[in-house]
Amino acid sequence: MDHQEMVALIRNGVSRPGGVWADLGAGTGNFTWALAELLGPQATVYAPDRDGAAITAQRERIQRQPPAARVIPRQADVTHPLDLPPLDGLLLANLLHFVRDQASLLQHVVGHLPPAGQLLLVEYEQRLPIPWVPFPVPFARFSALAVAAGFGSPRQVGTRRSPSSGRVLYAAAAGRA
Question: Cα dist. 149→12, 40, 51 in Å?
Fold first, then answer.
């Protein structure tokens, strides 16, 4: 999926420009850059990932291809307490399917958002585990997990077919309840 396809996938989950967001499990920053484009130059996006090589790649990418918003890479395991400022939104793009205890992670991250805060998720509409999606999170499962964690009912805001696997990716947004 190229940059513009990522932007299109999450566009309807970003209600307004600016603010402070975090892209948890940001990897090398593909969805971070898409989010930054939608949020614009007044925004800050924290981009934690536990992989030091991914953080290095983000820093190099900032020099080579400056993002539309301020991006702050941080090495951190998102399943542990995070040192983040108050946030307006959280992006979890292709993260939740790597986490065995998804309910605990969502309960953990809801505390980083104010009552009007936004959670934006990108996941595969996949029900059975496969090597690159070990703990699938189809939309119906995410909806139940999100509500149980303290978010409002999620809405699907986009879908795209993965060019590499042919599987459908969806984007969903949920406000903090």
Answer: 22, 29, 26
pLDDT in tens, 141-174: 999 999 999 999 999 999 999 888 889 999 999 9
Question: What is the Cα–Cα distance from 84 to 128, expressed in whole angstroms?
Answer: 33
Query: Quick one: how far is CA 153 from the chain centroid?
Result: 17
The Cα–Cα gap between 73 and 92 comes to 15
Going by C-alpha positions, the residue among 170, 93, 94, 109 that lies closest to residue 145 is: 109
Domains, the chain, with CATH or none:
3-175 (3.40.50.150)
The burial class, CB within 10 Å (0-12 / 13-18 / 19+), for 1 is middle
Local structure of residue 167 (DSSP, 8 states): P
CA dihedral sign, ordered 46, 135, 57, 32: negative
CA distance 125 to 162: 11
The pLDDT tens digits for 3-12 are: 999 999 999 9
